[in-house]
TrEMBL record:
Gene3D superfamilies named in the record: Aspartate Aminotransferase, domain 1, Type I PLP-dependent aspartate aminotransferase-like (Major domain)
Annotated SUPFAM superfamilies: PLP-dependent transferases
Full protein name: Pyridoxal phosphate-dependent aminotransferase
Record lineage: Bacteria, Bacillati, Actinomycetota, Actinomycetes, Kitasatosporales
Keywords of this entry: Aminotransferase, Pyridoxal phosphate, Transferase
Keyword Transport: no
Entry keyword annotation includes Nuclease: no
Matching CDD domains: AAT_like (cd00609)
A GO term for molecular function: transaminase activity
Cofactors demanded by this protein: pyridoxal 5'-phosphate
Listed EC numbers: 2.6.1.-
Domain Aminotransferase class I/classII large: 37-391
Length: 396
């Protein structure tokens, strides 16, 4: 007998059902339809260095990377990544067995989680999280366990006791992000030392997303977790050319890790994209060898942009949290008489002609993130000044 048809089975599987469409699609569409200034999605509105673009053109013309590059990435880039880690942090990685090139940090995150997790493994991650973390943990069959960063003395801070309490016998790895998107927090050497000690004590793996390693301001310092005692052999470090060189469309990222860990990540990565971004890999190899003056000028420029936006948001009546790193600033909208960041961001284009992102979408505990709104400052000064001028309407 034919089976009675009831409600049809949903097409999207259960692992991904909760994830819907990212907020960025909705907000970028709103920016377009209202002619708003888009400080939502975090991509620069100016391309990276001319000589790096030229290097990509040269590679393309010379036929380097136009066909499948080697699975782990072209040797020039793997060598350049290793040299960068050694020059900056004194970390020595073998380009052949300890460096893997990926399709952006996004693929590195996915491959690390897919390669290292068994179904049911718990992943302790800092909340609010970068939007792909939750989805990738779910795709890998893992369970996410958030530890919430909370405002303290004008910035978002990690409660180390809460982190310790979140670790159970089922915890397989800590997923760390510093400098932290969206809060702009940079974990201190003391905090990272405590995290490292916890990882060693509980024998945990650590995946650390350090794509903003070069965007650290004032007296903040970027300390790679892999550089701390006992961490080199248990840490997967993720970097990306997108944020460091302002080429987010090139999708060149990388992983550095001890051979066993790297091999696990590579096992997953080879069945995701296999390879990507051939000619761009050669260009990024040259970019990583740019003189220190490039990195300094890049950081100084972003810092002055941060200052323009921070001052403007405060003037407009927001509470503004201190950004020590990344190119985002998180605000609290309660001084404006608002409490729901999602509703606020939906109305902001109409009210002020500016688009921002509600941090609530980066939380499991939506209530904890409700009043916080993120603005990106990786935009031209004149764009930021126009945005600030428009946001002034909120105070008037
Ligand atoms: C932008 C970003 C990424 C993704 O980097 P891609 O190289 O563009 O894939 C990963 N993590 C964080 C925290 C980011 O902000």
């Amino acid at each position: 007998m034919a089976r009675m048809t009831s409600t049809p089975r949903p097409l999207l599987n259960r692992r991904l059902a909760e994830f819907g469409t990212t907020i960025f699609a909705e907000m970028s569409a709103l920016a377009l339809s209202t002619g708003s200034i888009n400080l939502g999605q975090g991509f620069p509105d100016t391309d990276g260095p001319e000589e790096v673009r030229e290097a990509a053109v040269r590679a393309l013309r010379d036929g380097r990377g136009n066909q499948y590059p080697p699975g782990p990435g072209v040797p020039e880039l793997r060598t350049a990544v290793a040299a960068h880690q050694q020059r900056r942090y004194g970390l020595v990685f073998d380009p052949d067995t300890e460096v893997l090139v990926t399709a952006g940090a996004t693929e590195a995150i996915a491959a690390a989680l897919l390669g290292l997790l068994e179904p049911g493994d718990e992943v302790v991650a800092l909340e609010p999280y970068y939007d792909s973390y939750a989805a990738c943990i779910a795709m890998a069959g893992g369970r996410r366990v958030p530890v919430t960063l909370r405002p303290r003395d004008g910035a978002f801070r990690l409660d180390l006791d809460e982190l310790r309490d979140a670790v159970t016998d089922r915890t397989r790895l800590l997923l760390i992000n510093t400098p932290h998107n969206p809060t702009g927090t940079v974990l201190t050497r003391e905090e990272l030392t405590t995290i490292a000690a916890l990882a060693v004590e509980r024998d945990l793996l650590v995946v650390t997303d350090e794509v903003y390693e070069h965007l650290v301001f004032d007296d903040a310092e970027h300390v790679p977790l892999a550089s701390l005692p006992g961490m080199r052999e248990r840490t997967v470090t993720i970097g990306s050319a997108g944020k460091t060189f302002s080429f987010t469309g090139w999708k060149v990222g990388w992983v550095t890790a001890a051979p066993g860990l790297l091999s696990a990540v590579r096992s997953a990565k080879q069945y995701l994209t296999y390879v990507a971004s051939g000619p761009f890999q050669y260009a990024v190899a040259e970019a990583l060898a740019l003189p220190e003056s490039y990195f300094e000028a890049f950081r100084d420029d972003m810092r002055s942009k941060r200052d323009v936006l921070t001052a403007g948001l405060a003037e407009a009546g927001f509470e503004v949290f201190r950004t020590a790193g990344t190119y985002f600033v998180t605000t609290d909208i309660r001084p404006l008489g608002e409490s729901d960041g999602i509703a606020f961001c939906r109305s902001l284009p109409e009210r002020a002609g500016v688009v921002a992102i509600p941090n609530a979408v980066f939380y499991d505990h939506r209530d904890a993130g409700a009043p916080f709104v993120r603005f990106a400052f990786c935009k031209r000064k004149d764009v930021l000044e126009a945005a600030v001028d428009r946001l002034g309407r909120l105070a008037r």
